[in-house]
Design a protein that fits this description.
heterotetramer; A: 259 residues; mainly alpha; MetI-like fold; 9 helices; elongated; D: 472 residues; alpha/beta; Rossmann fold; six-stranded mixed sheet; five-stranded parallel sheet; 18 strands; signal (chain B); SBP_5_dom (chain B); Peptide/Ni-bd (chain B); SBP_5 (chain B); peptide transmembrane transporter activity (chain B)
């Protein structure tokens, strides 16, 4: 296992453990405010990373945010992968009309800029997280679809699959033995990049105030809230930014292949 | 496509880190303004306030910084004994920007056209507006003492007849102000230049530009980098930051706008006065003012801020912060805390949804603070940050629980017009909801009709104290209007009524 | 499996038609499903939130005929679109077509300069890293690209504005009008694009240099520079250009954020406001234009690929 | 002109890949290196050229006309490329830049390497290519459109354009059919006759025989034979040398043709098409159980398409394919592939592929073990993944996999073209023997006419069925 990949996986593990332990780790309630102790520097009165512009403990909010952001990212990527790879294999395997139809559908979705789709969905139900999830998943599945369709098309024409079919081995054998081992590596890479895109997109949505409803501690919303006081308390905005960068960096390293 | 190449060269220069000669060295004759509001059209009914603040359009009646009325395009005005007819004498030798002269007929037609569009005129019982010789006559169906104040509002700006097409749509903004329109690029920018044939004192600066920058951080940075000379409505952090930058002066002026909580009294929990009082007691106004707004003395003790003389009543008992008292009041009403810490009474949870909107950066933050403070006394408040129009929509269809917004009581120099709309019978989109208070309605109509000062202030007093006790609307804080400008820009006066940026009176030092 | 030029063009036209339909219907259906009353939102957009009252909303409702059944309004919109009349903005009353031309011009200018900046950054770094894969420079540029990619565009924008406009005073911070305003938004967008483009260029160059064709060019005696210019560049350009076509989605998303940070009157800015102010015609107009712009750019990328690689247009 | 190499060896870190090898080449006396694929032959050429891939190092003295090359700094060593020493690549169609016209790739060597003006360079290139038998159309064509033979000639012209005195040819005839192979050999001979030095690396004994000069045979990275071509090719001393020579199909024993059992596969008036183009017409074939038919023809004539049509994978463009007797059973017609690793699921251990097959057709493990033993394969091989098993063993495993279904017909598409001569001979013997014992009809597609004559009961020459010929 190459070093960068190992480092990536270790970081991911650390982040996962912190996420599972959640806000209780910091000993503070992420929503508890103290308006007389706003923007405290790290380390004062037991606040590991200081307090935000409403006096809430930043460390607790980062951990709480991790739970929301990462679970949303995992969910969106998982469903996008399942949906995209499934349709990709179908299109690659069947070819002909199915392939063209699904290809046109993916092009249409691709033509609609991702953010627009998410904006529209988020605007329908401004405060529910499932519309965000649906929007993000809808924009991500196309990538999985295109990769798996291309690989499936190549593999179905390969001698190995032709021989398997001549030998009477069914479709599931081909998928389990030929398609999945080949695709799984690439899907893992795409998933890592997909998760990174979701995390960044949530931050952007938070910035144009379409994100989740207060007081949910979501990294993107935190950045938007803490951005105005970046000169007064640079460490406050630094916390979500570093958390986001660390997560995305470790995802990319864990994914291994060149991004 | 010269632009991109030019920009590319600049990008290269930047990459090479070569400093550009300081283009702003010699004494300047232009001023750039940055504010959050869009210039979505040139119709006074739409975003007209920007044209008034940039002193392009003027109204018959003007108001000074204290809110006292003074002559504008009308030199003086009288009212008939029965209070139904007002005469406004039009100022002599005033010229529109297209050179045409201002006369009573032009003023009357401009006002008649304004009546066809939503605006302040719709809350006045108007019969007709006609020109009579060199005066504009306003006929009413019933007495209305605030007609001059209404004619000071931006929706009643006087435009030259050539500004309108056949259907009354505005095709060009031809006003009478010291500055004329140079170029409008909706929705973000407006450029004006000095109008040399202005009837009043000619301004020192020759040109001014207005840029709509919706992000508060951008406005603060533009002020600091010198790209915007006058940056308006800064967010608390931006204001605190610019205070520390030398060469830049910041001012915070309390204006007749209050941050209030609108309550729907038809909702079970909010019907009892004691419950509303408890909710008010649970609010830490000093904490919000100091922590979020960064102006400790912005904490509201009553609805009307001190700047509204006559309406602010010093001897009204101030609103207090006493969570224990609040808990006792709620217990007295039969609310007990459930295991999730939320009060319940005969099966119903004390849960409400607060609607607010992000255009004013501090509102979502205050909403989050209220959510936490009410939770402490067992009230579950959900916060929904959406579009500002969801509040009047909720008022009309009754779907609203609670709303948080900043209500402007200075739409007209005399706040009576707003208060009638907000607290008259049946309440108002931006005022009380399902609050029957006949004695307040009576007092308001009296204030509206009475011209005798004692009777009027007695009526106002009844209204103010009723609002303080009944709390149909819970005041949170008095709004501070913030402006930042270079020290070198002399003579800038910040208008608390937000009627003008005061560009005609400024000049650059040196 | 190279498809003929004719078929490709037809494919793209069909895709454009699909985009128009999807954007129109989906946009419309979503706007219908939005909570709250569209008339109130539009009134807030037009008359400012102080003036938004029940009366103002009623007037808007009757003026725009918002009480007509949804299907009827959609049909009128579809009918108009085919005659290239995108109707009137419900908020500003301006003709949508006109507003978009005006704003589209700004966004296209910004996008062009951003792509130029991205190439200016990505090509040199990508080539240097690609020529020495695994070197320290390669690893550092990879890590840097990943970190920049992780940063949301608005953070990059604010940092650039702070450093270049406020501290150094080199360029105007925001707004538009004179040329200087271009620099910061284009630079921000360029950096966002370059963060991904650098890796694509690096991979393309590394693959080309390791290919048999390049090795043979060297073995023939061609000096490194001549071999790279004559054989390296074209072969590396094919995947880069193909990637540029797909990457337009990232560009369009960046535009939405960068335009709101720098108050650049582009189509991205108009899009976010159209959604908040529920300005249906404006939303559909901007979404349609963004979608078609994307289809056009992917088509141009296809053509560029075919021009570079003869094998594609058999 | 003289090239000498003393004690040359190539190392990957601490492990020695090939050598130490010493050799000498004079003008007019080419040296040909023979040996198994993967014995490190190419590394020798790359070491001499000074173009070893990253991570590999060479030791030993290399002198050209009295000048030491191995001690030269890389920049000066590279300056010799094209001018003094040139290398002909293994797969020319991959070595030519797909995005530049063929003629231009030769002209650029004249212009840039040899330093002639572009005008004269283009004329020189044109003369060189027409001298090698390429028409105008080929010169202007993209490399992708050239046949293997043409691509090799363009590569040769490009490599020698700058007048290099020494040429290292690495597997110049790989993937070419007999006619094209002889063209390339003639080309190399002419290069030698012009007084240049030639080092050729090949696994094809016939090429070594044609080139003459000296021959060296490599086994496990060491030289087991080294001497004049005439001696080594006729009376090799080492065991491997003898096996190598014996493996040349020309030295195979003649087959005793057999009638075979009842017919299992019959095709009459068969039309073969790929896409819209009609490749072959009127093809007739009658295969009996246990019988072997060889199908020969130049590459690109449609051999593989014929096999796919017989296997029922693609529809016939005309005529019909009928399966008779045992041939009619399901899974009775099976296929063996040209590139053994490509016929198995790449990322899955072989045992799993076999287990799936056995479970699908309810075949007992014992049958598989018995077949493995008969084909001399150790069961332990199945634990590995395809890419960890040699080409020869994989092809035999493919045969086992097919035989598990007791097929009536096996269609073999150039099964040994990727293998070296010794393994090729073993595999062909095994296939022939098993077919006879299991009474299976065999159709072998190959471009090697000698092998076809020595191995099959009858031969079908596809050039008799090309549409022009059939129509004419």
């Amino acid at each position: 296992m190459r070093l960068p990949r190992l480092v990536g996986l270790v970081c991911l593990l650390v982040i996962a453990v912190l996420t599972i332990l959640g806000p209780s780790l910091s000993g503070f309630d992420p929503a508890k405010q103290n308006l007389r102790a706003i923007l405290l520097p790290p380390g004062t009165d037991g606040h590991l990373l200081g307090t935000d512009n409403l006096g809430r403990d930043i460390a607790a909010r980062i951990l709480g945010g991790a739970q929301i952001t990462l679970s949303l990212a995992a969910l969106a990527v998982a469903s996008a992968a399942a949906f995209g790879v499934g349709l990709g294999m179908l299109a690659g395997w069947r070819g002909g009309v199915t392939d063209r139809l699904l290809g046109a559908l993916s092009d249409a979705v691709l033509a609609l800029p991702g953010l627009l789709l998410v904006l529209l969905l988020a605007a329908i139900r401004p405060d529910s997280w499932w519309t965000l999830y649906a929007g993000l998943a809808l924009t991500l599945w196309v990538e999985f679809f295109r990769v798996s369709r291309a690989r499936t098309r190549v593999l179905t024409a390969s001698p190995a699959v032709e021989a398997a079919r001549l030998l009477g081995l069914g479709r599931w054998h081909v998928v389990r033995r030929h398609l999945w081992p080949d695709l799984s590596l690439q899907i893992l890479t795409l998933a890592a990049f997909g998760a990174a895109t979701v995390v960044t997109a949530l931050a952007t949505l938070g910035f144009i105030s379409v994100g989740l409803r207060p007081p949910t501690p979501e990294w993107g919303v935190m950045m938007a809230e803490l951005l105005p006081s970046w000169r007064e308390a640079p460490w406050a905005i630094a916390a979500p930014v570093v958390a986001l960068a660390a997560t995305v960096l470790s995802l990319r390293l864990a994914a291994g292949s060149e991004g | 496509m010269k632009q991109p190449l030019h920009a590319l060269a600049l990008a290269l220069l930047v990459a090479a880190g070569i400093g550009l000669p300081d283009a702003y060295a010699q004494t300047r004759t232009d001023v750039a303004v940055a504010a959050p509001w869009h210039v979505s059209g040139i119709d006074p009914a739409q975003d007209g306030y920007t044209f008034q603040r940039m002193e392009v359009g003027e109204t018959l009646v003007d108001a000074d910084a204290t809110g006292a009325l003074r002559p504008g395009l009308a030199t003086d005005w009288t009212v008939s004994d029965d209070g139904l007819t007002w005469r406004f004498d039009i100022r002599e030798n005033v010229v529109f920007h297209d050179g045409s002269a201002l006369d009573a007929a032009a003023a009357a037609s401009s006002l008649n056209r304004a009546m066809t569009r939503p605006g302040i005129l719709s809350s006045v019982p108007l019969e007709a507006i006609e020109a009579d010789g060199n005066a504009v006559v306003v006929r009413l169906s019933e007495p209305f003492s605030a007609v001059p104040a209404v004619l000071a509002n931006y929706t009643t700006m006087i435009l030259a007849p050539a500004s309108f097409d056949a259907e009354g749509n505005v095709v060009a903004f031809i006003g009478t102000g010291p500055f004329a329109v140079d170029k409008v690029e909706t929705p973000l920018s407006l450029a004006v230049r000095r109008f040399d044939d202005y009837w009043g004192e000619a301004p020192a600066i020759e040109a001014a530009s207005y840029l709509s920058a919706s992000r508060a951080e951008t406005r603060a940075l533009m002020a600091e980098s010198g790209d915007a000379d006058v940056a308006v409505t800064l967010d608390p952090a931006g204001y605190a930051q610019l205070k520390r930058v030398d060469g830049i002066a910041v001012e915070a002026v309390s204006i007749p706008r209050s941050i209030v909580l609108k309550l729907n009294l038809a909702r079970g929990p909010l019907a009892d006065k004691a419950a509303r009082e408890a909710l008010s007691l649970a609010i830490d106004r000093e904490g919000i003012a100091a922590g979020i707004l960064r102006f400790p003395d912005a904490a509201a003790t009553q609805l009307f801020p001190p700047v509204l003389k006559g309406w602010y009543d010093a001897d009204l008992p101030p609103l207090a912060y006493d969570p224990e008292r609040a808990a006792e009041l709620l217990a007295g009403l039969g609310w007990e805390k459930g295991d999730d810490g939320i009060l319940t009474r005969d099966g119903a949870r004390f849960a409400l949804t607060l609607r607010t909107f992000p255009n004013r950066p501090e509102l979502p933050l205050i909403a989050a603070a209220l959510q936490d403070q009410w939770r402490a006394i067992g009230v579950d408040l959900a916060v929904s940050v959406g579009n500002s129009s969801e509040i009047p929509a909720g008022h009309q269809d009754g779907s609203l629980d609670v709303a948080l917004y900043a209500r402007n009581y200075g739409l007209t120099p005399d706040p009576v017009v707003n208060t009638v709309d907000d607290f008259g019978t049946g309440g108002g989109d931006w005022g009380a909801m399902n609050w029957d208070a006949p004695e307040v309605a009576e007092a308001l109509t009296a204030a509206l009709r009475q011209s005798d000062p004692e009777a009027r202030s007695a009526a106002i007093h009844t209204v103010a104290s009723a609002l303080q006790q009944e709390l149909p609307v819970i005041p949170i804080a008095w709004y501070q209007h913030t402006v930042a400008y270079p020290v070198a820009l002399e003579g800038l006066v910040v208008d608390p009524l937000e009627r003008t940026y005061g560009l005609s009176a400024v000049r650059w030092a040196r | 499996m190279a498809i003929s030029l004719g078929k490709l063009t037809l494919g793209r036209i069909v895709q454009a038609a699909i985009v128009a339909l999807v954007v129109g219907v989906v946009g419309f259906a979503m706007m219908e499903a939005l909570p709250g009353d569209a008339a109130y939102r539009i009134a807030a957009g037009r008359y400012g939130y102080d003036m938004v009252t029940g009366a103002a909303a009623e007037q808007v409702r009757s003026e725009l005929g918002l009480d007509r059944p949804a299907a009827e309004r959609l049909l009128t919109w579809v009918g108009q679109t085919f005659t290239f009349d995108l109707g009137q903005s419900a908020v500003t009353g301006e003709r949508v077509g006109h507003a978009i031309d005006h704003q589209l011009g700004h966004t296209v200018e910004l996008a062009l300069v951003a792509v130029a900046v991205a190439l200016l950054i990505a090509v040199p770094i990508g080539v240097l890293a690609g020529l020495r894969p695994g070197s320290l420079f390669d690893r550092i540029s990879a890590a840097l690209a990943i970190v920049v990619r992780a940063m949301p565009a608005f953070l990059i924008g604010i940092v650039l504005m702070l450093v270049l406009a406020v501290e150094l005073g080199l360029v105007p911070a925001a707004g538009h009008g004179h040329g200087g305003n271009f620099v910061l938004p284009a630079l921000t967008l360029g950096i966002v694009l370059a963060s991904v483009l650098t890796r694509v260029v690096r991979n393309a160059v590394a693959a080309t240099v390791a290919s048999d064709a390049f090795q043979f060019a060297l073995h023939k005696g061609l000096p490194m520079r001549a071999a790279f210019l004559r054989h390296g560049v074209r072969n590396a350009a094919v995947p880069v250009v193909a990637y540029l076509g797909v990457q337009m989605a990232l560009l369009l998303e960046g535009v939405v954020v960068v335009e709101s940070v720098f108050s650049w009157p582009g189509i991205g800015h108009a899009l976010t406001h159209a959604i908040f102010e529920r300005d249906v015609p404006m939303l559909q107009g901007t979404a349609l234009t963004l979608g078609l712009m994307f289809v056009l750019l992917s088509f141009l990328a296809d053509l560029a690929c075919r021009a570079l690689d003869p094998r594609l247009n058999t | 002109m003289r090239l000498t190499v003393e004690e040359l060896s190539v190392h990957a870190g601490s492990t020695r890949l090939v050598g130490p090898i010493s050799l000498a080449i004079e003008a007019g006396e080419p040296l040909t290196i023979l040996g198994e694929t993967g014995a490190g032959k190419s590394l020798l050429a790359q070491a001499i050229m000074g173009a070893l891939p990253e991570g590999l190092t060479a030791q030993g003295a290399i002198t050209l006309d009295g000048r030491r090359l191995d001690t030269l700094p890389p920049r000066q060593r590279r300056a010799l490329w094209g001018h003094e020493i040139a290398m002909l690549p293994q797969e020319p169609w991959r070595a030519l830049d797909a995005l530049m016209r063929s003629g231009e790739q030769v002209a650029e060597s004249h212009a840039i390497v040899a330093g002639e003006g572009w005008k004269t360079a283009e004329a020189r290139a044109h003369d060189a290519l027409s001298g090698l038998g390429l028409e105008e159309r080929a010169m202007a064509a993209w490399p992708g459109a050239l046949s293997g033979g043409m691509a090799q000639r363009v590569a040769f012209a490009a490599a020698t354009a700058a007048g290099a005195g020494t040429l290292l040819a690495d597997e110049p005839t790989k993937g070419l059919d007999e006619a094209r192979r002889d063209d390339v050999t003639a080309l190399l001979l002419r290069y030698v006759e012009d007084g240049h030095l030639l080092l050729t690396i090949t696994h094809d004994v016939a090429v070594a025989r044609a080139l003459g000069g000296k021959v060296m045979v490599l086994k496990d990275g060491e030289a087991v034979e080294h001497g004049a071509a005439a001696e080594v090719l006729h009376a090799p001393k080492s065991a491997y040398g003898q096996a190598l020579i014996a493996a040349d199909p020309a030295n195979w024993p003649h087959i005793i043709p057999q009638r075979g059992g009842e017919p299992v596969l019959v095709a009459e008036g068969l039309g073969i098409a790929r896409g819209r183009r009609l490749l072959l017409d009127g093809v007739g074939l009658s295969l009996r159980a246990g019988q072997r038919i060889a199908v020969v023809g130049e590459s690109g004539l449609g051999k593989s398409s014929l096999l796919d049509t017989l296997a029922g994978l693609i529809p016939a463009a005309g005529g019909a394919v009928r399966r008779l007797g045992r041939g009619a059973a399901p899974f009775a017609v099976q296929k063996l592939y040209q590139d053994p690793p490509a016929a198995f699921a790449p990322r899955v251990p072989l045992a799993e592929s076999f287990r799936d097959l056995e479970r699908r057709h309810r075949i007992s493990r014992a049958e598989r073990e018995m077949l493995l033993e008969r084909l001399g394969l150790s069961p332990g091989l199945l634990a590995r993944r395809p890419d960890a098993v040699s080409g020869g063993e994989l092809q035999r495993l493919a045969l086992v996999r097919v035989l598990l279904l007791q097929p009536a017909v096996i269609l073999a598409d150039e099964p040994t073209s990727r293998l070296d001569p010794v393994t090729q001979r073993q595999v062909m013997e095994v296939i022939g023997a098993i077919a006879r014992q299991s009474n299976v009809g065999l159709v072998l597609v190959t471009h090697n006419r000698t092998m076809a004559r020595r191995w099959a009961d009858s031969t079908l020459d596809l050039s008799d069925y090309t549409p022009l010929r059939a129509a004419g």
